[in-house]
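Chain A, query sequence.
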Amino acid sequence: MPDPIKDSGPVSVGKMKITENERAKRKALSRAPRPRVASTLVVTCGSGENLRILMGQRSSRHDFMPSVYVFPGGRVDRADSYAKYAGDLSPRTARILQAAYPLRRARAVALASIRETWEETGLMLGADTEANRNINNNSYDEFRRAGQLPDLSGVEVFGRAVTPPHRHKRFDAWFFIKHLGECALPSISDSSELLNVGWFMLEEIKSLETQRATDMMLQVLERYLKADRPPETIFYSRAIRGQFKMLQFP
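Chain A, predicted structure.
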């Protein structure tokens, strides 16, 4: 059976923007850093031409990709493996993630995207629950105090990208999507990580200052949204011997 993403043609790759500060930090390293596992969540609301996507602008103070607009996301933390949750990974997403990690770690990768979305945009994607135990993590304890558990329902993986070795920070980033359906736009807020947080239409995003990885994943996202069904594999970008490779995973 054909894959609706794999068979839809190549993804174009723009030029990666690197500041002089980032270039100097990489030059100071004797070797390329090992990629850290990270998780990104694309939250969508509405449909068609009215589809809105949650994004924010990284602070100019960041030493990695300053000032550009991104989806909420960040590193997977130890607490993500121990947090209680509602719902669960879909069989498709579980299968794809388990090609790389044990099930508990796979859930942690997805949960990290929900936690980071809360931390960076003030959007709590949770399900009602009775009070559960404190795990000494401020974000998950905020869910608990709100009577919520981070909800994995409807979270689907659609891409993966590894930062190339010429950057001073590298991430093995997994990209997830959570569609909220036709609803009023939820309240959001700026944070120390993201400024100018907002719900943007695809055409609006094209006029924002973004990075190569974000532009690339927006193309993958558009194909994902147009497909009749989620693909059996996901788009996977990584550099091999200095050359970008557009692969499929698993």
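The mean pLDDT is 88. Residues 70 and 214 are 7 Å apart (CA to CA).
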